[in-house]
Amino acid sequence: MGLEERRDREPDVYQPAEDSELLAEAACERLGGSDLVLEVGTGSGYVAGRIADGTSARVIASDLNPHAVRQARREGVETVRADLVSPFRDETFDAVVFNPPYLPTDPENEWDDWMEHALSGGEDGRAVIDPFLDNVGRVLAPDGVVYLLVSSLTGVDGVVERAGEAGFSAVAVADESFPFETLTVLELLR
């Protein structure tokens, strides 16, 4: 399914955009056949659905937003309500995919709703990325991989450095430039 209008869109849910498409394509090109994949922050369920349809991987999705969980389930995605990787068992997933909230946001300009949570990465754009990097290694199988979408607005080099501090090596596997930013999919390995 492309980026076309979804059946039952929830107004408080991040809907697929160019970043979703880039991450889905990169993950589908690289994932193996019998992988167990976790998509963190699934939003509409678009990326998880694309991975499930484009590979033979089993995909589980999570989101903190209850509206997102509901929409993703309606799209046929196995989805649980969760904060990042907190409820999942150690060494469970062959791959973890994440399109985090990455837009740098002035604290005085933030609003308190579900779309803010889907978009705002805090002052430096890494308010969600850093805790994710601190914890994702726990749920990865020994040879597991992470596909993380980041923006030039967040600072790709800073994210790569932070990933290194969390025990990962990082390589860019896809990118796409837009007038105000470049989006990059990082492949993280231990």
TrEMBL record:
Annotated keywords? Methyltransferase, S-adenosyl-L-methionine, Transferase
Q: Name one GO molecular function term.
A: protein methyltransferase activity
A Pfam match is Methyltransf_25
Give a GO cellular-component term.
eRF1 methyltransferase complex
**Can you tell me which family this protein belongs to?**
Belongs to the eukaryotic/archaeal PrmC-related family.
Q: Which NCBIfam families match?
A: hemK_rel_arch, PRK14968.1-1
Name of protein: Class I SAM-dependent methyltransferase
